[in-house]
Amino acid sequence: MALHRLFQLSSVLRSSVSLTLRRNIGLSAVVFNRAKDLDPIQKLFLDKIRSYKTKSRASGGVVDGDASYDKNMSDEIFKLQRLYGGGDLDKFPELKFTDPIHDEAAK
To answer: What pTM did the predictor assign?
Structure first.
């Protein structure tokens, strides 16, 4: 009986240690990967994203957007307003749901 309990405890302990080691190794791999140099393609990609972020903040909107972009954007907004009955497309619509059954019961 005691031997059986010892084997059960050993099994639980083994699985717990195994899980902890797997988690720590996974975390260590991420930390070590960030610590070492990125591969050139990843570095180029991250540099481009950071560059775009800086340009986007400086321009206050779309990067390299010229007059033709603004004209196309206003044309598309006009088409959407005409298609969906106007309104402000920059604001989320106010939705009002009614339930005739519950509304009548509340009266």
So the answer is: 0.40
